[in-house]
Specification:
heterodimer, A: alpha+beta, seven-stranded mixed sheet, six-stranded mixed barrel, 28 helices, 25 strands, globular, B: mainly alpha, three-stranded antiparallel sheet
């Protein structure tokens, strides 16, 4: 017998009475093993296992109950015993009930499993992202320190700066100041320079004979000890390295260790040649002192591969270059985050802060590292969580309603049982057992469904959700499943069980044969639940419509260029050889010549940064007549760039052959930059501090779909060579296969230059809205489910009404009422509560839409058309759901009904 | 529909298995399995649940293992049919025989010669 089976069975054996287990366990196991062997041959492993475990439960019940010799029964009046036996009886009875109407209960199970599955999936995301502790020692005391821009007084979120942009890099001066002046509340402060903000932290390494650009970091010697992280192999940096003079030590990530070194433990102490960016060009030997554990992360969604040491001694106390991505600090025990944040804010962050108006002055900001990691996704998580909770409410309402209807259908059965001596409490307990059983099975199925679908869901979650890759079936998820089970059970079954069987049951029996109508009260509960469903469905649908409309508008934003199929490749010329401008120029010329020669390339150009990506330089230009600096996004491009991107020239000309390395520097402005700098005057031909303006081109969205285009100006690559090079290529037909050819071209020009991130601009743009697409899709799916559930609930309720009122309807028909009139009558009965619910949902949505504002683009949260559309859809679907079952009345034949049942 | 005094099918099979000699749990399960061509499989819970009730009703008795019995380990409990059990089993067989007889009369099955 498989080990698993043995373990499972031993677990189940605990159900048996202890003394029986002592004497019989061995035999039980033997028989079980034999039965498993024979049974799995006949029926397969899983059915055999289910059978075997079910048998264990059954045996345990049998051995714990009955079995005493007749006439010699022990006193069985103990309450618990009675309860237990009535529970078994109820369970058995409930199972029989389920079997009698399998479709009905299967339907309910599907509803429950979907609602709960969706919730479990969302929860597991929330858990992985939000609840799972960060991989540091005592992570709650680890703080992130920033130089922060004051937040604008009124924010239209998303269209203003995202929260990550309020947090800025910092200087050597502020790092030292923070360290010196925070001793009272921080144990320590460590500086970090990351690859995404600074070339100095990018490293080129040759892996498998291919130059590769690594994401790196420069950290002060106390960085890892402050975080409370130890190496998996070797060691991390320690403050002692500072005293030892550090040298070029690196710690590598677990991922790089596996990828580049095949997980070789001998890597510790080995020397590797790394090309560091900007600060000290050229390859230099670095010594690997440690490998970090796989769980360690500092950057999201991309990992950092190489951590190089940066001794404090190398950091200038007066340094004014922004070279650190903030810092990390550890709270002293007993200090609260609020106290620390307040104290930290008073530390000056810039050397000459008083030159800036107080409202614009940057400040020192301290926040828990968790907040810094979750910065941009916390709202999305809230949205998803709320939507899932609403879906759960509607699921419960649907199930409760179906069970209520079920109770109504069983009045007669209940009455008979009551007349045979079952008390009211007993009947309630039985209905409760049915509900509990149903919810339990539903929860199990739902949680299992979510667990099974987790890998799919995980693949669907965009990488912008940090740590979503940690989603897993774990104790949290199971605990959540348990909590949900309790909620669902209470919400969905309490009402039917309590409202179902009532004291006047005996009257019911008498009524049952004669009744023309059923009690108004029972129906009122059902219709009330329908109304509640409509409330939730309406608000969900309106919310989803808002998100869909935003997404739709976002997809139709005018970018100012045509990203379709444009392939990009990024490069950084880090090596010492590219120190001279001529070397960069030669590289660019050689590269362009090779790329243009590739068959399938229609056109190619160069720029310093791909839209939505890369480093954006903000620089100022000055008019000759005015000392004011006009700041804008500065890009260096070649003459072919505008044609490849299809950016229209509005006035003047583009860069051309007349602009050479030695001619007068030419500058092209974007439309909004020209307007900002020269107002209504014509900018073309004007001279500014950096050259002459030769043309004005259209505005372009470089920073994000939802952000308004920033003013920009362009300089010419041959006049102003920059070591950041992005190739943009428009293919002749389609982009497939072009990537490899471009990589080869780069390799042919200089094999030591890694070609990074080969992709198309439309893909980059698509990725930039991945999280938006994710929550929009999820919300829409959930809203659709809610609508379906509401419709299903209505159909069940109206169908029941038709049955209950058929006698009344038969009388009406006999008295001459037309069938259309009857249909309207019954349908109206369902529609009225839906209308009330929709109205309430509308009111709720009007209030709630403001919460949605951060997620909206190009549409006001008060746009009436959305509310009307959302409510309209609910009403239309509800009308159909009411009329469909009511139409059965049209075919009613009054005579047989009036004659009797 | 079975008559009210009908034995549960697996009780009958257990009694039948014990009719010729005392057996232990696994022995009963195997015997019943073989006789019913695998149609009735007595899983341990079902078996011991039934044995407990049958003991309570005096149909079977727990008994010592035969002297010559050797097992892989432990000393399993043996069960032996009682006089009452024998009677109950015979009654049940009798009852079923009547149905078989009826089926023969109606020419559903052939008479054994």
């Amino acid at each position: 017998m498989a080990r698993l089976d043995r373990a499972l069975y031993r677990l189940f054996l605990r159900l048996y009475p202890a003394d029986f287990r002592r004497t019989h366990a061995q035999e039980l196991e033997q028989i079980y093993a034999w039965c498993m062997t024979t049974s799995r041959q006949r029926r397969g492993l899983v059915p055999a296992r289910v059978r075997g475990l079910a048998d264990a439960v059954r045996g345990a019940i049998a051995l714990r109950t009955g079995g005493a010799p007749p006439g010699n029964e022990p006193p069985r009046s103990s309450r618990i015993h009675r309860l237990a036996s009535s529970l078994t009886q109820d369970t058995r009875f409930a199972l029989r009930t389920f079997r009698r109407s399998p479709l009905f209960f299967a339907g309910l199970l599907v509803v429950l499993a979907l609602g709960i599955g969706a919730n479990a999936a969302v929860f597991s995301l929330v858990q992985a992202v939000l609840l799972e502790p960060l991989p540091y020692g005592e992570p709650d005391r680890v703080m992130r320190l920033w130089r922060a821009h004051p937040e604008p007084a009124s924010t239209v979120p998303l269209q203003a700066r995202p929260p990550s942009l309020i947090r800025q890099g910092t200087t050597g001066f502020s790092l030292w100041t923070w360290r010196d002046q925070s001793r009272a509340f921080l144990e320590d402060v460590a500086g970090v320079t990351l690859w995404d903000g600074n070339l100095a932290a990018q490293f080129d390494m040759t892996i498998d004979e291919r130059a590769e650009r690594l994401r790196g970091a420069l950290v002060t010697p106390n960085f890892f000890t402050l975080l409370g992280v130890d190496a998996q192999a070797g060691r991390v940096f320690t403050p002692a390295d500072e005293a030892a003079g550090a040298g070029d030590l690196v710690v590598i990530s677990n991922g790089l260790w596996r990828r580049a070194f095949g997980g070789d433990p001998g890597v510790i102490g080995r020397t590797v040649s790394l090309v560091r960016g900007r600060a000290d060009r050229g390859a230099r030997p670095h010594t690997i002192v440690g490998v970090l554990p796989a769980a360690f992360r500092f950057t999201y969604p991309l990992t950092t591969d190489v951590w190089a040491i940066r001794p404090w001694a190398d950091i200038s106390r007066t340094g004014s270059a922004i070279e650190f991505n903030g810092a990390v600090g550890r709270l002293r025990p007993g200090v609260t985050v609020e106290q620390a944040a307040a104290a930290f804010r008073s530390i000056p962050v810039l050397q000459n802060a008083d030159r800036v108006a107080p409202a614009d002055r940057d400040y020192s900001r301290l926040e828990p590292i968790r907040d810094a990691v979750l910065l941009d996704v916390r709202p999305s998580l809230w949205l998803l969580g709320s939507v899932a909770a609403l879906l759960l409410v509607i699921t419960c309402a649907t199930v409760a309603n179906a069970l209520l209807v079920r109770v109504a259908e069983r009045q007669r059965e209940l009455a008979v049982r009551a007349s045979l001596g079952a008390g009211l409490g007993r009947l309630r307990r039985q209905l409760l057992t049915e509900g509990v059983l149903l919810s339990l099975v539903g929860t199990l199925t739902g949680t299992a469904l979510a667990a099974a679908a987790l890998p799919v869901f995980r693949a669907f979650v965009p990488p912008t959700f940090p740590r979503a890759d940690g989603m897993a079936v774990n104790g949290w998820l199971l605990a959540f499943g348990g909590a949900i089970a309790a909620t669902v059970t209470t919400l969905a079954t309490a009402l039917p069980a309590l409202r179902g069987p009532r004291a006047d049951l005996m009257d019911r029996i008498r009524q049952a044969a004669m009744a023309t109508t059923t009690s108004r009260e029972g129906r009122r509960w059902r219709l009330g639940l329908v109304a509640a469903q409509a409330v939730v469905a309406t608000s969900l649908l309106i919310g989803a419509t808002f998100l869909l409309a935003s997404f739709w508008r976002l997809g139709r934003v005018d970018l100012g260029y045509d990203p379709q199929d444009v392939v990009t490749v990024e490069m950084r010329l880090l090596d010492r050889r590219y120190r001279s401008r001529d070397a960069i120029r030669d590289f660019e010329q050689a590269l362009l010549a090779r790329v243009r020669a590739i068959p399938g390339v229609a056109d190619a150009g160069l720029t310093t940064a791909v839209p939505f990506r890369g480093v954006d330089f903000v620089r100022g230009l000055q008019r000759t007549d005015n000392p004011k600096l006009y700041f804008g996004n500065s890009r260096t491009v070649d003459a072919g760039y505008f044609a490849v991107m299809r950016i229209p020239v509005l006035r003047g000309r583009l860069f051309g052959p007349e602009d050479t390395a030695t001619s007068e520097p030419a500058i092209i402005l974007s439309e909004s930059f020209a307007r900002m700098m020269f107002g209504a005057e014509d900018a073309v031909g004007r001279v500014v501090d950096d050259g002459r303006i030769v043309g004005v081109v259209g505005d372009v969205r470089y920073a994000g779909l939802a952000r308004t285009p920033e003013p920009a100006f362009y300089t010419l690559a041959s006049q102003n060579p920059v070591e950041l090079i992005c190739l943009v290529v428009r293919p002749a037909s389609d982009a497939a296969g072009l990537g490899d050819a471009l990589r080869r071209a780069v390799h042919d020009v200089d094999p030591s230059i890694p070609a990074m991130d080969v992709t198309t601009i439309d893909r980059i743009i698509e990725d930039s809205v991945a999280d938006r697409r994710f929550y929009t899709t999820t919300t829409t799916t959930f809203a659709g489910l809610a609508l379906v559930l509401t419709a299903a609930g209505l159909i069940v309720v109206i169908s029941r009404s038709v049955v209950e009122r058929r006698r009344e309807m038969a009388i009406r028909t006999a008295l001459g009422a037309g069938s259309g009139r009857l249909v309207r009558l019954v349908a109206a009965q369902g529609l009225l509560p839906v209308m009330a619910g929709t109205a309430m949902g509308l009111a709720g949505a009007v209030l709630g839409a403001r919460l949605l504002e951060p997620f909206l683009f190009g549409i006001s949260p008060r746009a009436p058309v959305v509310f009307v559309a959302g409510a309209g859809v609910v009403l239309v679907v509800a009308t159909v759901a009411c009329v469909l079952p009511a139409r059965r009345l049209a075919t009613i034949a009054p005579a047989p009904i009036l004659r009797g049942d | 529909m079975t008559a009210p005094d009908a034995l549960p099918a697996h009780w009958f099979q257990i009694l039948l298995a014990l009719a010729d000699e005392p057996r232990h749990g696994l022995g009963i399960t195997k015997e019943v399995y073989a006789r019913t061509d695998g149609r009735m499989q007595l899983w341990p819970g079902m078996l011991y649940g039934a044995l407990k009730k049958m003991t309570a009703q005096g149909l079977v008795n727990e008994t010592d293992a035969p002297a010559d019995f050797e097992s892989g380990g432990g000393r399993p409990r043996f069960y032996r049919i009682t006089a009452a059990g024998r009677r109950a089993c015979a009654d049940e067989a009798e009852r079923m025989a009547r149905f078989v007889e009826a089926a023969r009369d109606k020419k559903l099955i052939r008479r054994r010669t």
